[in-house]
Amino acid sequence: MERLGQAARAAATAMRRTATGPKNAALLAMAERLTDARAELLAANARDLARGRESGLDAALLERLALDDGRIDAMIEGLAQVAALPDPVGEIDGLRSRPSGIQVGQMRVPLGVIGIIYESRPNVTLEAASLCLKSGNACILRGGSEARESNAAIAACIRTGLLDAGLPEGAVQVVATTDRAAVGRLIAMPEYVDVIIPRGGKSLIERISREARVPVIKHLDGVCHVYLDATADPEKALAIAVNAKTHRYGTCNTMETLLVDAPVAEALLPRLAEAYAGHGVELRGCERTRTILPEATPATEEDWQAEYLAPVLAIRVVDGIDAAVAHIERYGSHHTDAIVTEHYGLARRFMAEVDSSSVMVNASTRFADGFEYGLGAEIGISTDKLHARGPVGLEGLTTRKYIVLGDGQVRR
Amino acid sequence: MERLGQAARAAATAMRRTATGPKNAALLAMAERLTDARAELLAANARDLARGRESGLDAALLERLALDDGRIDAMIEGLAQVAALPDPVGEIDGLRSRPSGIQVGQMRVPLGVIGIIYESRPNVTLEAASLCLKSGNACILRGGSEARESNAAIAACIRTGLLDAGLPEGAVQVVATTDRAAVGRLIAMPEYVDVIIPRGGKSLIERISREARVPVIKHLDGVCHVYLDATADPEKALAIAVNAKTHRYGTCNTMETLLVDAPVAEALLPRLAEAYAGHGVELRGCERTRTILPEATPATEEDWQAEYLAPVLAIRVVDGIDAAVAHIERYGSHHTDAIVTEHYGLARRFMAEVDSSSVMVNASTRFADGFEYGLGAEIGISTDKLHARGPVGLEGLTTRKYIVLGDGQVRR
């Protein structure tokens, strides 16, 4: 790992100086190499899958591990999309003259060396590499051992793509060893690694955050809420509450608790229950919910904290926006929360008072996503407050330094 | 500390919702209270000083601890200045429409609860409180035990100022205990504290960074360079090289190593040496420097890494910008580095290639400062790459969350 770290640090210095042209050329060269290597990649993936089946990996894990032509097409297309994104590096903001005569502004620059630790999905290898490369960083990628042959095949395409474009091999390094101690070393080399981004389940992220000696951009849980205010348009309320829960169950921006303002609970809850029943969603309600929907299971304290990632929904009847905001503050995970309302003042209050990475008015929580937000791509969703908050795109992989332009000025 | 943490968390929720008016009113009320309490504050400070002298504190520490009418005037004036700064909270950037019909933007919001740990200077208590308050945060302040009576007197003014304006007392809490274990607890309560800012010597900051369980915005050393390129205007080169070293010795943005391009070393070094001699600056030079300035002490490897904070300067003759940038990359602390040049391309290269929090062309490194940059105030200079880099003003005490405005949109 020391050796990888040194190579990454040296490559980061070179990448910082690399113009947009060669970076895009490398991304497109990787796409070409991947097109040529499709058969080898599928074969490597088949070997990973066979080994996974033998060692008894569960079906969900095997599904995430599997590549097919469609997924490889998406990987190739993704490279072209990242090449088409504007290069954030070198952008200068707010350059203004000061009374001393100097001009001061901020220039966007790469973070340096980014370590990414992820689980079974091999397409993350390419996605992470392309975003780090475009943003002028060097990266060290550590994927799951179950995907090692797929990752090695992808790494070969990345390496030749870099060399085709005249960029240093060290700009993207895929850790070959499956030794778990390698992760421990990677997250404890502040001299070589500027930031760690773990992608995966909560336990992986918690362990890495606890043990890391370099900054971590982390994505913990998404206990997301929709609050249906008394002034909500009933059709918007129904559409959003159903979409936020049922569009996909396993994603972090899926609603886990629905809060309903008391005056409209009797009108809305039966219609919602019918829609949820059509999707097979199990309902767990507070006492007031259960007087309207007796079929709901009684919700416990744990339900308000739960990230179900499953067709289960907690429902609570609340008295107005203060109770809704207080519930979100107490039980939420500060990921994404939405209000449905037609009241201007309440919309403004909800936006100001809810301290989450995404706060929405009259839209489904499922929109909390780098593509939907127009970032072009995302490397994850940060639940941290510092640096990057919410979906992290190319900009989140950069930082800003001050630049000062003078004509010989000295400080008096 | 638990109790302080809980009170701060509750106050942070209230402060997040507080408009600019009451925040400014509290700042101005504190200024009034301080004006009225001037005699008590001077008396409390005199007791701190007497105790400090008895316990044998050194002269520099006593100097930092001492308050007089001038320093109290500056504190009062500082409150008015912070009140006059624009409020960063609620500012919305980049709101744009997406193909789905939602509008997405970013809103600037407070970080939450900020813990600040500092040493002897009692005026930091008021400065830190005013910046955290204006940026909508709650703060817990832990000053040095040698300043405890001064800090208690200032805390009383802060508390009554908060109450005068109807803001919660918990918005600014000054830790009364001088128990060192309190610091250990403060930096390990992620449930109550969102970020720690240590202000003080390197050993304090290193210890806190090592032990903290919440994010730290840190300011480590300033090993700053000025590189005099062969194309530099000699008068600008002399003015900047002399100012960057001699304007003040103990500040982090003071130049510690001067790099001189070989073709101009013979012309510039004797003139520089004469100017430095006039200021009593001791020179330590590389071998090439010493062939021109035989009176310079031979520089060792340690000199290239030294943050002297004293009238001592290391000088190295280098071959062009590549050698200069390589030296800065290897030995610098990524704080502030400047080039003096009249060459357009070299100015651009230096700005792009030097990875420091401030990079300057034809200006003295001494300008790296929140006031000089127009931030209005600064709580410190960050040498971190994530979140805030360089001087940290009100904006560095905030973060941005995504806001989504819709009309009932759901994800397809």
Automatic annotation (TrEMBL), chains A, B:
Subcellular localization: Cytoplasm
GO molecular function: glutamate-5-semialdehyde dehydrogenase activity
EC number(s) stated in the UniProt entry for this protein: 1.2.1.41
InterPro entries registered for this protein in UniProt: Ald_DH/histidinol_DH, Ald_DH_C, Ald_DH_N, Aldehyde_DH_dom, G-glutamylP_reductase_CS, Glu-5-SA_DH, GPR_dom
SUPFAM superfamilies with a match to the protein in the record: ALDH-like
This protein's pathway: Amino-acid biosynthesis; L-proline biosynthesis; L-glutamate 5-semialdehyde from L-glutamate: step 2/2
Superkingdom, natural source: Bacteria
Reactions catalysed: L-glutamate 5-semialdehyde + phosphate + NADP(+) = L-glutamyl 5-phosphate + NADPH + H(+)
Domain Aldehyde dehydrogenase: 5-277
Keyword Repeat: no
Entry keyword set: Amino-acid biosynthesis, Cytoplasm, NADP, Oxidoreductase, Proline biosynthesis
Main location: cytoplasm
Presence of the UniProt keyword Cytoplasm in the record: yes
Gene3D superfamilies for the chain: Aldehyde Dehydrogenase, Chain A, domain 1 (3.40.605.10), Aldehyde Dehydrogenase, Chain A, domain 2 (3.40.309.10)
Family as reported in the entry's similarity comment: Belongs to the gamma-glutamyl phosphate reductase family.
Described purpose of this protein according to its UniProt entry: Catalyzes the NADPH-dependent reduction of L-glutamate 5-phosphate into L-glutamate 5-semialdehyde and phosphate. The product spontaneously undergoes cyclization to form 1-pyrroline-5-carboxylate.
PANTHER family: DELTA-1-PYRROLINE-5-CARBOXYLATE SYNTHASE, GLUTAMATE SEMIALDEHYDE DEHYDROGENASE
Stored HAMAP family: ProA
Protein name: Gamma-glutamyl phosphate reductase
Organism: Halomonas flagellata
